[in-house]
Inverse folding.
């Protein structure tokens, strides 16, 4: 009796697998803006193509073989499914059903807030390292290339006391207010993963304001701006990351820039 029940279970499981295989035959996944839709039938793919929801270069994945195709290849071969030829040259696609990576696509705008640690380059006044605050904007020309712009501010004091010519009998630490407006081009080294390392290069208009015993002086220069970082999406419209940068600029042997390490949070509009 046990053998009969065991044999029946095997036959039942084989039948279920056969039905499942039949139901999946001719089914495909469609990749649009890094989002995986499906499985859908060949007829659905054809309908979406006619409705202009997908185009000839849209990527299609066979649900059984996991082979990659272009939509045009599937439509041309819909009457000859056995002759459908995969495109071996197509690189793997980052498939993210939650659409978190869609915010990195072409045409997206983001507002960025940052909090970091600023290390001034100047050794003349010997300023302490200090916290830095930032507000930025990013526009994506593509999923890997962006235009970035930031405003940074940091306030520090010199490590030593200085005498003012207007108050020769008293001394105080010099307060230094560092600020910068930057403009650069950012390049993400990959658009296939959630973890996106990048590098950037551009220009920085760096400014230093000095305050001592109520007297002020300031200088600003445009110099080099560059660095490295990474970003990671935490939702469909929010991403976080770390960034290290360097800003140059010098006036009368006083360096106006410095190096910083920042935590950034981006909000995609």
């Amino acid at each position: 009796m046990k053998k009969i029940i065991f044999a029946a279970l095997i036959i039942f499981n084989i039948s279920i697998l056969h039905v499942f295989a039949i139901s999946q035959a001719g089914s495909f996944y469609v990749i649009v803006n890094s989002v995986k839709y499906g499985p859908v039938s060949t007829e659905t793919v054809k309908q979406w193509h006619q409705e202009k929801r997908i185009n000839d270069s849209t990527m299609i994945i066979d649900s059984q073989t996991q082979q990659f195709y272009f939509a045009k290849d599937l439509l041309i071969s819909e009457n000859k499914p056995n002759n459908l030829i995969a495109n071996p040259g197509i690189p793997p696609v980052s498939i993210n059903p939650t659409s978190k990576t869609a915010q990195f696509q072409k045409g997206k705008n983001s507002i960025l807030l940052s909090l970091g640690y600023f290390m001034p380059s100047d050794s003349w006044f010997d300023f302490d390292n200090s916290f830095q605050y930032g507000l930025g904007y990013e526009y994506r020309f593509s999923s890997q290339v962006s235009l970035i712009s930031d405003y940074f501010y940091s306030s520090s004091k010199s490590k030593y006391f200085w005498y003012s010519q207007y108050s020769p009998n008293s001394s105080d630490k010099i307060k230094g207010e560092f600020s910068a407006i930057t403009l650069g081009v950012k390049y993400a080294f990959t658009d296939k993963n959630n973890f996106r390392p990048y590098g950037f290069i551009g220009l920085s208009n760096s400014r230093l304001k000095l305050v001592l015993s109520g007297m002020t002086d300031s200088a600003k220069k445009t110099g080099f701006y560059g660095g490295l970082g990474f970003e990671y999406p935490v939702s469909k419209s929010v991403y976080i990351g770390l960034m290290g940068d360097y800003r140059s600029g010098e006036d009368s042997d006083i360096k106006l820039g410095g190096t910083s390490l920042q935590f950034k949070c981006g909000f995609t509009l």
Q: What stands out?
A: The first strand starts at residue 27 and ends at 32. Residues 161 and 172 are 5 Å apart (CA to CA).
